């Protein structure tokens, strides 16, 4: 299977967008708001990329179930390791607080429910771990439907669920979907993962010419603008919630991925493409550094810096860089141990 450099290239911008989303305050001025909404393509793109490469591997493996099993075990191990890390980190700070320690510990562990632990991936300061649980359940569902040769049926089901899920996020002013959270596998991750699978199973998408690629890029840029405007209208005019995903996110993600498939060599040999290939590691680690440094900034009474645009840009670059370097160092240690 030829390497698709363009996906890793776009992942670089996507993971930086995630860091920006988490750094910039949601209640900032209009510029912050636009940046936040434009950056919302990132996580859907990660799901689509995961589904795409998973489906390609499944088609090429002599024993698809063996690859599927190993893939899921790898994701579960990753989730468990970082779940333990974030729980340990949270407990450490509760103990250091030394005020109402027992009460705070009880309250903390009460929120780590069975459902949060196994499905939502919530309950700790590592709130971004929801991506791993959503990906695990999405991949299990996708594999079942691939084996049943009913992936088109799953795409339709997941599309309907995703639209319903939007009423638990961006469109609550029209109707509040009665679910505590729709940012999960069923209402979010499954659709974008299945979208990536469909791209992998449809070989015609990889043979489109470069004119088509440029058209897809243009459509993706239009989608980026529409997504920002949709968020602006819903929040500023209709008084809805922002920092969410929209119907336009679907179109943006699809067009961006189709562009990547038609320019597979894009980013080849570039350092940022190598960084983009490690997007998952940056995604998992950056929240730790963000929480740690935010605590320090609050401790030295400099929290007002979060309102400064230049500070937030520099802070985002710093967190992104240190997260990547940490992940890269951890990978070197891992390879050394294995050797």
UniProtKB/TrEMBL annotation:
Cited InterPro entries: Acyl_transf_3_dom
Subcellular location(s) of the protein: Cell membrane
Sequence ranges assigned to domain Acyltransferase in this UniProt record: 4-327
Chief localisation class: membrane
GO molecular-function term, one example from the UniProt record: acyltransferase activity
Transmembrane stretches, start-end: 12-35, 41-58, 127-146, 153-174, 186-203, 215-233, 245-263, 270-289, 309-330
Keywords (A to Z) from UniProt: Acyltransferase, Cell membrane, Membrane, Transferase, Transmembrane, Transmembrane helix
Membrane topology: Multi-pass membrane protein
The family this protein is said to belong to: Belongs to the acyltransferase 3 family.
Name recorded for this polypeptide: Acyltransferase
Species: Fictibacillus barbaricus
Organismal lineage: Bacteria, Bacillati, Bacillota, Bacilli, Bacillales
